[in-house]
Amino acid sequence: MEPTEEKTSKTVDIYRDTWVRFLGYANEVGEAFRAQVPVSFVRGTYAVATVYVTADAVDKGKKAAAAHGDKPGRATRVAAAVVDTFVWQALASVIVPGFTINRVCAASLHLLARTTKWPLPVRKWTTTAIGLSTIPFIITPIDRSVDFLLDSSLRKLYHEDEKEE
């Protein structure tokens, strides 16, 4: 099979494999720009990220429903897919990274104020640059940590349900 054939035969998940995935990071960008923009803008970025999380959860629920057909336990599998996706995405794409970028930016703005004589606009833009540059470095550790958290807690419930069937 040629590489192009292999790529076309794989199902593309628009929420994970396309540019749509970046909508989940909207709030991190909002947090990085918090010092520059009105708080309503930052809240709007959280709304975009939350819509992304919800859409992905609904999509995974529909896929679970289609995959499970009319077999017994279908509702449980669909619910597990929706809950798992929503909780994972909410933690890994919105809550933890948003908090992390918020704290990185707040700390950098504070440190710049205490250690430099730069004018406030320069400190704010530097803080924004620091926040934006932090995003690529936090994604993988946060994703892995959320996986570990869910594997150690919530996902154990799903596996118990599978054993009962």
UniProtKB/TrEMBL annotation:
It holds the Pfam family MTP18. GO terms for biological process: mitochondrial fission. GO terms for cellular component: mitochondrion. InterPro entries: Mitochondrial_18_kDa_protein (IPR019560). It comes from the Eukaryota. Belongs to the MTFP1 family. This is Mitochondrial fission process protein 1.
